[in-house]
Amino acid sequence: AQSVTQPDIHITVSEGASLELRCNYSYGATPYLFWYVQSPGQGLQLLLKYFSGDTLVQGIKGFEAEFKRSQSSFNLRKPSVHWSDAAEYFCAVSSGNTGKLIFGQGTTLQVKP
Amino acid sequence: DTGVSQDPRHKITKRGQNVTFRCDPISEHNRLYWYRQTLGQGPEFLTYFQNEAQLEKSRLLSDRFSAERPKGSFSTLEIQRTEQGDSAMYLCASSLPGRPPNEQFFGPGTRLTVL
Questions:
Q1: Res B1 pLDDT > 70
Q2: Side-chain-facing half-sphere of A87: CA atoms under 13 Å
Q3: What is the DSSP letter of B71?
Q4: Other CB atoms closer than 10 Å to residue A56's CB: what's the count?
Q5: Which residues in chain B are contacts of A36 at CB distance < 8 A?
């Protein structure tokens, strides 16, 4: 069965520091992978997605993610975190035929000044 | 177009009552999804429509839940005889069809509290 695991429930980083959020997936075929961000009181917003090709994908707000098939991972990175990045981050895999998303349980990012 | 909208944003009800939520997708999107998100968890898929046809339902969608999308436009999600375990955020998303899948745009959600 398809599944997504985000091992870190909560992460705290200092403003200006680098960030890496981990995501591992289980999927039989080539996965379609996504990262979404959810700020308090806001809907989910797509940060980036991977379908095929270059394994390093760029997204909005300075985020990037790297697909590693051998590790079944799709980790999200940002070189320098801003206070406005504090939010909840979700990794998801899509079931290709219907497009439905299977989400991980999320990682809450706190940014220290 | 201002995106996906959901109404109401908040609903408080007593156990045993029926509730109905509405989702208005982006106008040209023929795919519509409902998800449920409980505290500290990621959204879980409930059901999927392509135009007016409901093509997939999760096992999470018990007999007390029903969803419709008449005329392939807005959608409603009804919960009958609500239980405290139904308390959650109900999210709606819409997208264009395609493979690879197109981006799903999410609404702000309806937060349900069952007392």
A1: no
A2: 20
A3: G
A4: 11
A5: 106
Q: Contact B44/A103, CB-based, under 8 Å?
A: yes
Out of A43, A100, A105, the one facing B56 most closely (by C-beta) is A100
Distance CA B30, CA B90 (A): 19
A26: part of which helix (H) or strand (E)?
strand A24-26
CB contact under 8 A, A99 and B101: yes
pLDDT in tens, B58-95: 988 889 999 999 988 999 999 999 999 999 999 999 99
How far is the C-alpha of B83 from the C-alpha of A22, rounded, in Å? Answer: 35
Average pLDDT over residues A59-77: 96
The average confidence (pLDDT) of chain A is 93
pLDDT band for position A73 (cuts 50, 70, 90): very high
Which sign does the torsion angle of CA A61, B94, B31, B11 carry? positive
Interchain proximity A46–B107, CB inside 8 Å? no
